[in-house]
What does this fold into?
Amino acid sequence: MTSPIVIATRESRLALWQAEHVKARLQTELGLPARLLGMTTRGDQILDQSLSKIGGKGLFVKELEVALSEGRADLAVHSLKDVPMELPEGFVLAAVLVREDPRDAFVANHYASLAELPPGACVGSSSLRRVTQLLALRPDLRVEPLRGNLDTRLRKLDEGGYDAIVLASAGLKRLGLGARIRAWFEVDQMIPCAGQGALGLELRADAPQLAEAVARLSHGLTWQACEAERAVSRALGGSCSLPLAAHAVPADGGLRLTAALGHPTQPTLPLLKVALAAPVASLSDARALGQAAADQLRAAGAERYLAG
It folds into this structure.
């Protein structure tokens, strides 16, 4: 690996920050030179429709994978929450970096918390996971779609289009915008989506030398937790059209996993929730824990929700 590693990235400000972060770690920790290849994905281009209607979060990944397959890039940096649960043949997830704050954030200009919003207030979010959990907390709210990159979403709030919006804390903190957060939703109040706050590094499967190198950047506990979360979604066929939440934390030498499922077309129906813990010493153990959570959700009635 004498040539600089080419890192494929989306061109939003947050994506570029994430790619620059990985580039710096490659250089300072591994002594590997790197450069960025900025790209615009279909997910960035189509902003007038919900992701669930146009192909899901995988639209933020596809063009980067094409650059990998064509040899124009060696490595792709993703927000792990955007990475499909099953990678296409020929690609591998080579590392998961230490997780930033996984919580969702309440952002508003005139209200300090969700509880302060007046009845019927307009809250912006295009995430079905957030919509169902918001309505479980405040069924009187009007939740309206909100697409675009982080700066675009904040601008729409500032222009008065919404009384409040809900965003991932991790992105706000990474861009130095933590001051915009008025309150946090604790993870037992609004369960994050699988992989929220973590970065994933994707490579071609035929690059074992690079995979071995970047694996040194990985954070074992974060990867195990995210693998358990992603296994829940994988077992239930999770996508942007399914309001599914899953979050795992270290507990007693293993992981404690909480998951929730809402109805995709009737967001006011009760959430199905499960919580379980198990010893976890490997990614395989983590996947087994996620499968067990999915099985418990099915036992609680998930099939009726999945059919919706």
Observations:
- Residues 13-30 form the longest helix (18 residues).
- The chain has a mean pLDDT of 92.
- The CA atoms of residues 146 and 152 lie 9 Å apart.
